């Protein structure tokens, strides 16, 4: 081999070795925080830095918490709770690289405890496996579940009489419902399908598929955006026109996440949510997912007819006309009108 070829081979080897070493050095970069066990609470200061064991010459670092640029030191105040992603864009020489880490943000206050006073009791269809309940123009609408039994109904809440009824096909398990701009939105459980109906005629006008959420549980709206639960700690924000899942809330307390978020109702700027297999309701801040209050409705179960098919509390509706809350359960024979108060 000629001396020139040997020189070329050695040069290429050194170049590849240096490139490999440089790449390894970049891979050794990581985001360092002042957060113990990756958990922090609202009101606390998050401090960020770059762990740079190989002393790479870094010209700048830009941090992003989810989609928002942040400084290397920030007091957490308005951020959404739950597991969140921090990304650092690191500039070195003429190149850039992105690295990320995750933190869990908790609320900084314990949920307030609420109780209730029964205002009225009304009859409720004992065969209805209630999944969704909502008032619209002073009329009560209900969605029920179970394969072969699922229905959409308009009900005279004072008498329990069914005013309108649509049966779902046997392959669908009905879940929550909400009404926005004269459209009824009804979820199904594991069929990845929601239905849209005209509120007056009950004619089905369209359907939609879910996105990242795999199941349909509860749904409510704030007059613009639809909020959809899927049985986890996640509440998905749906675009009102496309019904695409634009973003999500994660439901957390000062201790950790709350799963099993089920039927939901928008009441005075908050989300009131049943939890699956729990006879209580969580009051959730829709801006960050914090559980701000809890209502224990467990005594109500003893006030309905006890029978083999009796199931848990599920179904919560707010009537703006009476400014009261209505609750029932799966196969309960009563609908309770209540007022709540802080203990």
Write the layout of secondary structure elements.
Blueprint: H1 3-27, E1 30-33, E2 39-41, E3 45-51, E4 60-65, E5 68-70, E6 73-75, E7 82-92, E8 95-106, E9 112-123, E10 130-136, E11 139-144, E12 151-155, E13 162-167, E14 174-180, E15 183-188, E16 193-198, E17 204-209, E18 219-221, E19 226-229, E20 234-238, E21 245-250, E22 261-267, E23 270-275, E24 280-284, E25 291-296, E26 313-319, E27 324-329, E28 334-342
Parallel strand pairs: 2-8, 9-25
Antiparallel strand pairs: 1-3, 3-6, 4-5, 4-7, 7-8, 9-28, 10-11, 11-12, 12-13, 14-15, 15-16, 16-17, 18-19, 19-20, 20-21, 22-23, 23-24, 24-25, 26-27, 27-28
Could you describe the 3D structure shown?
The protein has 343 residues and is mainly beta. The protein folds into 2 domains: 81 residues, Immunoglobulins (Immunoglobulin-like), CATH 2.60.40.10; 231 residues, 6 Propeller (Neuraminidase), CATH 2.120.10.30. The chain is 7% helix and 51% strand. The protein has an 8-stranded mixed β-sheet with strand order 22-23-24-25-9-28-27-26, with no helix packed on it. The chain has a 5-stranded mixed β-sheet with strand order 2-8-7-4-5, with no helix packed on it. A 4-stranded antiparallel β-sheet has the order 10-11-12-13, with no helix packed on it. A hairpin with a 4-residue loop joins strand 26 and strand 27. The longest helix is centred in the first third of the chain and has 25 residues. The chain is elongated, with a radius of gyration of 27 Å. About 3% of the residues have low confidence.
């Amino acid at each position: 081999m000629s001396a020139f070829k040997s020189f070329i081979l050695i040069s290429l080897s050194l170049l590849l070795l240096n490139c490999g070493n440089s790449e390894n050095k970049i891979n050794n970069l990581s985001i360092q925080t002042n957060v113990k066990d990756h958990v922090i609470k609202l009101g606390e200061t998050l401090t960020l830095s770059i762990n740079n064991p190989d002393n790479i010459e870094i010209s700048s670092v830009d941090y992003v918490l989810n989609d928002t640029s942040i400084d290397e030191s920030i007091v957490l105040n308005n951020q959404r709770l739950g597991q969140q992603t921090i990304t650092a864009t690191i500039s070195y020489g003429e190149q850039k690289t992105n690295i990320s880490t995750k933190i869990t943000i908790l609320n900084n206050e314990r949920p307030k405890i609420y109780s209730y006073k029964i205002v009225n009791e009304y009859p409720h269809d004992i065969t209805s496996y209630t999944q969704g309940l909502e008032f619209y123009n002073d009329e009560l609408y209900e969605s029920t579940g179970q394969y072969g039994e699922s229905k959409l109904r308009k009900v005279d809440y004072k008498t329990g009489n069914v005013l309108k009824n649509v049966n779902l096909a046997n392959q669908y398990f009905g879940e929550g419902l909400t009404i926005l701009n004269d459209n009824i939105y009804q979820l199904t459980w594991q069929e990845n399908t929601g239905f849209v109906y005209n509120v007056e005629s009950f004619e089905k006008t369209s359907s939609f598929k879910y996105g990242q959420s795999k199941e349909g549980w509860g749904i409510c709206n704030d007059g613009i955006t639809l909020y959809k639960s899927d049985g986890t700690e996640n509440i998905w924000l749906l675009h009102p026109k496309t019904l695409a899942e634009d973003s999500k809330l994660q439901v957390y307390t000062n201790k950790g996440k709350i799963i099993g978020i089920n039927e939901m109702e928008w009441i005075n700027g908050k989300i009131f949510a049943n939890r699956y297999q729990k006879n209580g309701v969580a009051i959730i801040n829709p801006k960050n997912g914090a559980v701000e209050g809890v209502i224990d409705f467990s005594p109500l179960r003893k006030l309905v007819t006890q029978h083999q098919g009796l199931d848990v509390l599920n179904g919560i509706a707010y009537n703006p006309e009476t400014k009261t809350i209505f609750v029932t359960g799966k196969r309960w024979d009563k609908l309770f009108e209540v007022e709540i108060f802080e203990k």
